[in-house]
Amino acid sequence: MAESMLGLKRSHRCTEVTAASIGQKVTVMGWVQKSRNKGGIIFTDLRDRSGILQIIFEESDCGAEAFEKATKLRSEFVIAVVGRVEARLGETNQNLVTGAIEVRAESLRILSESETPPFPIEENSRTKEELRLKYRYLDLRRPDIQRNLILRSKIAILTRQFLAEEGFLEIETPTLIKSTPEGARDYLVPSRVHPGSFYALPQSPQLFKQLLMCSGYDRYFQLARCYRDEDLRADRQPEFTQIDMELSFVDVDDVLDVNERLIHKLFQELLGVDVPLPIPRMTWQEAMDRFGSDKPDLRFGMELVNVSDVVKDVDFIVFRSALENGGTVRGINAEGEGGRPRKKIDALVEYAKGYGAKGLAWLAIHEDGEIKSSFAKFMTPEQTDALVKAMDGKPGDLLLFAADQNKVVWDVLGALRLEIARQRGLLKKDDFRFLWVTEFPLLEYSEEQGRYVAMHHPFTMPMDEDWHLIDSDPGAVRAKAYDIVLNGTELGGGSVRIHQSDIQSKMFEVLGFTPEKAQEQFGFLLEAFRYGVPPHAGLAYGLDRVAMLMAGCDSIREVIAFPKVKDASCLMTEAPTPVDQKQLEELGIRVIEE
Ligand code: ASP
């Protein structure tokens, strides 16, 4: 039995019916959250995306036929009710916006019935994520996830408004593009018309937005879908959305300024949070030295201390060999963790090994001042004192040390710092600590490829004062690149771009491109730059991450309507799937059976 809504027009969403509507006749439509028959009276909770409204059916108001129909209501039936708004007879429900009112039904239509859903449609579902994603269209009915998507929509709309007011134009760039494999792996799309040739899906609109600057559009933005075929780590999606922008005739400060004001507006208007401006800045070097991370979480301290000098004469082979091999010894002070049982210290050591540490040296200062340590026996009392002092160790503290090459030491202590903060509950979701990380290295050495690769991308401008080092010490050249970091998550990043062809050619050379190869891959860009290119710079945010942190969620899957899972498949549609032989033939593709 599915009735039509002929002649009915919805007058209110559920929570638009308020105490001010008492006495009015309303027409509401939505899903039955639950319906309880208490003898001569039926209480039905009606739900739509705005919330829940209580409906009351009594035969004296709605007539025998409608009452009989109401006895059949089950969860997730879609209904339309015409009725009059009243103050609630029973107790006010403090949990509902509409808790002080109810609608006394005068008529009822069942617009469609529902089978029993595989899980209840309710807040804070404990349903397994796999099941939620298989029935995502039902999962998306749940109020918490609806709130997330509504917030995401508001972020997108407000961003558009703000950027438009700042003189940005919204311009779409293509999603079937030339494959330029640098960075992640491309998703490829076979061409039917050009057998054997492929398009790539964009990893970002990078080259097109730079071309738009060449074309004089001055300020561009786009909410751009991007695709990266990476081995999926916990919280990555093969496709994701960027708030992407590019500006002409600007330097670093101009980009940061407009983005700080965008962030301020989003947090102010959507969360009522006043982000203090200017957002603090920290160079990459300082971030690594103090936090062991290029995306420091500033919600707590526990900063790294370089104790290489303090321990340089200590007769402990682990410290000694790290220092002799050009590494460092650094520590963190986990304040108040000195009483941590041995088993739990060992667990930290194991955790550190997961980040590449060969071991972890520890020193616990008990409340009574007694010192227990994995390496104190190699030190004189004076050396121990000096080390404790350097770490500002007090009774009750636990000092943890890593000794290795800088990169390992940073990774290990950066990760431990976060893990301990997590264990101690120091990571408050409503404490928003923004940070710009600037002056990233231009290049990083890839052991795997045996050459330097671009840390950001090959179009990033080196810092003027470092450029002379490009041949003698390429690793020391810093870039005009910046990341916006929030609570230990990189929300976005960008750079000033190279607009001088001599610098660009040199960059390609350092990155191992022959002039022919550079021409083959990026010829159109290099050519465009020959016809008058303005200095330009830009930035892109991961919209999914922005929405996730603003919504207080732990996963971007909670702010994406139809996300994929770790192996890049969609549990609802079962994509990717094999295709018809005929489709493959048209594309000239033969699949090799493994
Ligand atoms: N296109 C860059 C990225 O996707 C961001 C930028 O430099 O604007 O990371």
Structural account:
By secondary structure, the chain is of the alpha+beta class. The protein has 15 helices and 22 strands. The strands form five sheets. An eight-stranded mixed sheet has the order 6-9-10-22-21-20-17-11, with helices on both faces. Helix 4 (143-165) packs across helix 14 (543-551) and helix 9 (342-353) crosses helix 11 (406-423). The mean pLDDT is 95. Residues 204, 206, 493-495, 538-540 line the site of aspartic acid (ASP). Residues 204, 206, 493-495, 538-540 line the site of aspartic acid.
Question: What is the arithmetic mean of pLDDT?
Answer: 95
Described by strand count, sense and barrel closure, the largest sheet is: 8 strands, mixed
Q: What's the total number of strands? A: 22
Termini, distance in Å?
Answer: 51 Å
Q: Which spans of ≥5 residues are poorly predicted at pLDDT below 50? A: none
* Structural class by SSE content: alpha+beta
* Whole-angstrom Rg: 30 Å
How much helicity do the residues have?
25-40%
Q: Could you state the oligomeric state of the chains shown?
A: single chain
| Small molecules bound in the structure, each named once | aspartic acid
What fraction strand?
15-25%
Main sheet: strand order: 6-9-10-22-21-20-17-11
Shape: globular
Count of discrete alpha- or pi-helical segments spanning 4 or more residues: 15
In short:
The protein is of the alpha+beta class. Helix content is 29%, strand content 23%.
Keywords:
eight-stranded mixed sheet, alpha+beta, single chain, 23% strand, globular, 594 residues
